[in-house]
């Protein structure tokens, strides 16, 4: 997302930016164009599927006081165990992100060679290659989530139950590789028209690439696609 362009078009707007997919230390200056940055600590920052948390940050003292006042009135204070687990996770954040990116690139290379894959969606590559300049200008990397669409002949529902290490879950950012069909899971309940507007169908798969040995992930993809 080009926050600089949005700020230029709407100079007086209060811009709230969700940083969850982008992650920490992956910004080349876009954050300065946002008034408020929010993010989920449950995903990449926590990274182990064992805590629920989030964060909000801002530079404007007036906005900060309003947020602090609301937080003080309504609660939302992190419990001790989750705070401890979050601090633990921050110590390995860079290592986990680097391994996830390394695995993700190998996964994309594998998907590109599969005749069962119709489209691949990843920032700056494949079906999203028109985003390459924006990605290069705003971020250091595209993350470790890749989405792809398969041929109609691939029986996804049957093969999901045969995967070995990959877990079915509508989430991302974990040390575990997670897979889902958004139309059945994270976007369940939407009409066909709504799914179409979002660019989704029942052959669309989202894969959050984790930190396992990449051979485990590729073996599961072979089961899914071959």
TrEMBL record:
GO cellular component, one term: cytoplasm
UniProt cofactor(s): pyridoxal 5'-phosphate
PROSITE patterns: CYS_MET_METAB_PP
Record field: transmembrane: none
Gene Ontology process terms (BP): transsulfuration
InterPro entries per record: Cys/Met-Metab_PyrdxlP-dep_enz, Cys_met_metab_PP, PyrdxlP-dep_Trfase, PyrdxlP-dep_Trfase_major, PyrdxlP-dep_Trfase_small
Pfam families to which the protein is assigned, alphabetical: Cys_Met_Meta_PP
GO molecular function: carbon-sulfur lyase activity; pyridoxal phosphate binding
Keyword hit for Transmembrane: no
Entry keywords, A to Z: Pyridoxal phosphate
UniProt record similarity statement: Belongs to the trans-sulfuration enzymes family.
Protein name (record): Cystathionine gamma-synthase
Lineage: Bacteria, Pseudomonadati, Pseudomonadota, Gammaproteobacteria, Salinisphaerales
């Amino acid at each position: 997302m080009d926050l600089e362009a949005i700020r230029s078009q709407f100079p007086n707007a209060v811009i709230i930016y969700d940083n969850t997919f982008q992650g920490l230390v992956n910004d080349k200056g876009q954050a300065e164009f946002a008034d408020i940055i929010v993010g989920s600590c449950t995903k990449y920052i926590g990274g182990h599927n064992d805590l629920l948390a989030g964060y909000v940050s801002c530079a404007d003292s007036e906005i900060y006081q309003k947020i602090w006042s609301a937080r003080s009135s309504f609660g939302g204070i992190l419990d001790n165990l989750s705070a401890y687990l979050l601090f633990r996770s921050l110590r390995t954040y860079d290592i986990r992100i680097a391994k996830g990116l390394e695995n993700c690139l190998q996964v994309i290379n594998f998907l590109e060679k599969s005749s069962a894959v119709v489209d691949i969606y990843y920032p700056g590559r494949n079906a999203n290659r028109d985003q390459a300049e924006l990605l290069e200008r705003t971020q250091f990397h595209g993350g470790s989530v890749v989405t792809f669409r398969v041929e109609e002949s691939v029986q996804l529902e049957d093969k999901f139950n045969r995967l070995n290490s990959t877990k079915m879950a509508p989430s991302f950012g974990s040390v575990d590789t997670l897979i889902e069909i958004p139309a059945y899971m994270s976007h369940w309940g939407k009409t066909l028209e709504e799914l179409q507007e979002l660019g989704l169908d029942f052959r669309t798969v989202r894969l959050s690439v984790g930190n396992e040995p990449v051979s485990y992930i590729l073996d599961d993809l072979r089961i899914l696609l071959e």
